[in-house]
Design goal:
single chain; 256 residues; alpha+beta; 26% helix; AP_endonuc_1; magnesium; AP_endonuclease_F1_BS; metal-binding
Length: 256
């Protein structure tokens, strides 16, 4: 099973890119973030024509998450976090697909820091950690995939010294990501590629993609059952080079 996460940065505006990538790579499951569309404007028919069933949790102009399944319809198990600090923001969706529990998340950016947006980010992380603690011991494979808006370590960013004041690289959020790992969640990409500088996001400005001046903020966290099945992981960088594309590239894992 190939499970991908992709911040599309506007599902309708990037729909041609999304459909071309789906046709070329045929992932079994896709977690989408930053739909920037209310529920009624989600392109369900176009995705169904491409062979994907979907569930979605939209929001006008901002946020929004969706889970796609190839030749299947995801079975929704949760919409929003328990104890969500702001339920009006569509940031978490969960589904069962072929025996795997998939959580799709779009964690708050948190900038500017300090300030109310960063405080909200920390509250959201706390609620997410509480849910993750419930899901971790499940016997079935669990994959928590999405745009975490967290740069975990120095090797996950070009020139880390330039990010010391940014909410994506704040000590509090890096500590939270490290806590998840300490509790038993496996960072899939780092599990198989512990030292390589691998990025998933490149800003539109300053020719960042051409210079490979990127960040790694899109992650798959796996519980023990899922980690035992992990076979490969990759980033579809070519999608970031397409016209009118997102500033993120799809990231995928393969489970046996």
């Amino acid at each position: 099973m190939r499970i991908a996460t992709y911040n599309v940065n506007g599902v309708n505006g990037r729909l041609p890119v999304l459909l071309e990538w789906l046709a070329a790579t045929a992932p079994d499951v896709v977690c989408l973030q930053e739909l920037k569309a209310p529920d009624e404007r989600f392109p369900a028919e176009a995705l169904e024509a491409a062979g994907y069933g979907a569930i979605w949790h939209g929001q006008k102009s901002w946020n929004g998450v969706a889970i796609l399944a190839r030749n299947a319809v995801p079975i929704e198990t949760r919409r929003g976090l328990p104890d969500d600090p702001d339920p009006t923001q569509s940031r978490y969706l969960e589904a069962a697909i072929d025996g795997v529990l998939i959580g799709c998340l779009y964690l708050p950016n948190g900038n500017p820091r300090p300030g109310p947006k960063f405080d909200y980010k920390l509250r959201w992380i706390a609620a997410f950690e509480a849910l993750a603690a419930e899901l971790l011991p499940l016997e079935q494979p669990v994959v928590l995939a999405g745009d975490y808006n967290i740069i975990p370590t120095d090797r996950d960013v070009t020139k880390p010294e330039r990010w010391t004041e940014d909410a994506l690289f704040a000590p509090e959020v890096r500590a939270a990501f490290a806590r998840l790992g300490g509790e038993g969640w496996i960072d899939a990409l780092r599990h198989l590629h512990p030292d390589e500088p691998i990025f998933t996001f490149w800003d539109y400005f300053r020719n960042a993609f051409a210079r490979d001046a990127g960040l790694r903020i899109d992650h798959h966290l796996l519980n023990a059952a899922a980690a035992s099945c992990l076979r490969s992981v990759g980033v579809d960088r070519s999608v970031r080079a397409m016209p009118k594309t997102s500033d993120h590239a799809p990231v995928w894992i393969e489970l046996a």
